[in-house]
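Friendly challenge for the regulars: who can give me the structure tokens for this chain first? No prize, just bragging rights.
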Amino acid sequence: GSASNRNAWTLSLWFKLSEVPGGTGQTLLSCGTSTDEDYLRLDGDGRIQYRVRVSSSDTVNNLSDGLYKDPTSWYNLVVRYDNGVTDTCKIYVNGDEITFSSSDQPSGSG
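First reply, four minutes later:
Bragging rights claimed.
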């Protein structure tokens, strides 16, 4: 899309863990406020957590199947969002699309 089209975008980042995930995990990217926020993080088990919150009662929370917890490796993470297609958001790590085994979606969400 064009620079003015915020309905389609791609984000790419590299990350390397400073330590093996544990406790509350590590945030990779976040934006917004406590009632309107998106973030990508590694949870304490090393799963990627993708969370979208548009209100305190309307949150989508996804946890990846794969584990990413090698502190000696660099990981390339790409998020592709396109509101014009059925699969709105896809996330890739090192070129492979990741799948989510756990998904918490509010009623009425896709």
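The mean pLDDT is 77. Residues 13 and 39 are 13 Å apart (CA to CA). Your move, everyone else.
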